[in-house]
């Protein structure tokens, strides 16, 4: 089984920063695509950022230039650095491990990010 453990969510003011972490307890981490998604109340889950080892990451237009996805293969951990946070970024953020070519997604438990003054 695949287990993903997320941390780093919380309450921040507009313009603040947070870093989310997702640890994966599997050796396949190095050969899989990792992604961050978010879901706000009443809305569908959307892709925020995604990357594979050795490949340039992709970002949603709404977060481009503000968020950065990275991974540490030695620690089997993927990160999402979020800067210049806006109230519109408020959502539950989910880490995902993606198997290719089946595109099967394994999800973390989710961590709440609230941006409010």
Q: What's a concise summary of this model?
A:
By secondary structure, this protein is mainly beta.
Can you offer a commentary on this structure?
The chain is 0% helix and 51% strand. It is built from no helices and 11 strands. The model has no long low-confidence stretch (mean pLDDT 93). 26% of the residues are buried. With 117 residues, it is an all-beta fold. Strands 2, 4, 5, 6, 9, 10 and 11 form a 7-stranded mixed beta sheet that branches. β7 and β8 form a beta hairpin.
Largest sheet properties:
7 strands, mixed
Which structural category fits the helices and strands? mainly beta
Mean residue pLDDT:
93
Secondary-structure element series: EEEEEEEEEEE
Helix fraction bin: under 10%
Uncertain residue ranges: none
Strand content: over 45%
The tally of helices reads: 0
Total strands: 11
Radius of gyration: 14 Å
What's the layout of helices and strands?
Elements lengths: L3 E4 L2 E3 L5 E7 L8 E7 L6 E7 L5 E2 L7 E6 L4 E6 L8 E9 L4 E4 L3 E5 L2
Parallel strand pairs: 2-11
Antiparallel strand pairs: 1-3, 3-8, 4-5, 4-9, 5-6, 7-8, 9-10, 9-11
Throw out a few tags for this protein.
117 residues; mainly beta; 7-stranded mixed β-sheet; 4-stranded antiparallel β-sheet
């Amino acid at each position: 089984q695949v287990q993903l453990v997320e941390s780093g969510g919380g309450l921040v003011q507009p313009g603040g920063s947070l870093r989310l972490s997702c640890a994966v307890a599997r050796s396949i981490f190095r050969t899989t695509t990792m992604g961050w998604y978010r879901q706000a109340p009443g809305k569908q889950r959307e892709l925020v950022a995604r990357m594979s080892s050795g490949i340039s990451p992709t970002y949603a237009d709404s977060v481009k230039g503000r968020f950065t996805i990275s991974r540490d293969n030695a620690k089997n951990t993927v990160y999402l650095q979020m800067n210049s946070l806006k109230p519109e970024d408020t959502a539950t953020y989910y880490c995902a491990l993606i198997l290719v070519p089946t595109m099967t997604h394994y999800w973390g438990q989710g961590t709440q990010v609230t941006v409010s003054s």
